[in-house]
Amino acid sequence: MLRPYDYGINVQNHSGESQSYYVWPATPFINPEPATKIYHCVQQASPKVPYPKGSVLFSLNMKHFAVTGPFPKSLEKGMKIELSDFKPLQVCGLDEYGDTLTMSAVHGWSSFTEPKQGCETLSSFSIGTEEGLKEDEADKVFIGLGAADPEIRGRSIPVAFFATQPANNTVFTPLAKYYIAAGTEKPGRLFDPAEVRSPLLVDFISHDATRAWVVHEKHGTWDVSYS
After folding, report:
1. I need a labelling partner for 3 at 20 to 30 A (CA). Which of 36, 58, 115, 219 fits?
2. Could you tell me the pTM of the whole model?
3. Could you tell me if residue 106 is left (phi over 0), alpha (psi between -120 and 50 degrees) or otherwise beta?
4. Would you place residue 131 in the very low, low, confident or very high pLDDT band (cuts 50, 70, 90)?
5. Whole-number mean pLDDT of the chain?
């Protein structure tokens, strides 16, 4: 069952063979735009879905997290991105401000203050860096958007992150848009969306919907309807 305000993607496998699937969110709006590259991790993944009658439901909780951790010295596809801290946050609505918090870092280890209301950008939250944070300390850690860990209750995984910039307040606006692809990636693991073959964009915003019904057809094509 989907909880209120969650989004669901039901995938039916008509591809002609058993498949695994994985999902990641579209890159959030980030202001100011980071000076460094934005990296991505998988949000959810399925076990093998049999053909011809198999299906899987991705239940996507729109609970957002601020995440931070040590920036890896080398980045390799499939590596797990470790967190040093994470905080669940509320985004700005019509009746109240969104959450804001501050990140501090010492010797490559970062943490957040407790969130407080203060972000005035609709559907957004913000992450600031501690006053006086030096550039050589900032680039050792990252900040980003996190999602609920599908494997460990009460934890978070990063889904979009980048090297921290000193003296900066960054506004994140998550989007109810997701990509789905066939493959065997794992949640919280690094991957490059540009290398994914024939992903499908599921756009809940444009269709004013909360459920998507996806059919993975032969030859790698997709059909999608919304409700």
Report:
1. 115
2. 0.94
3. beta
4. confident
5. 93
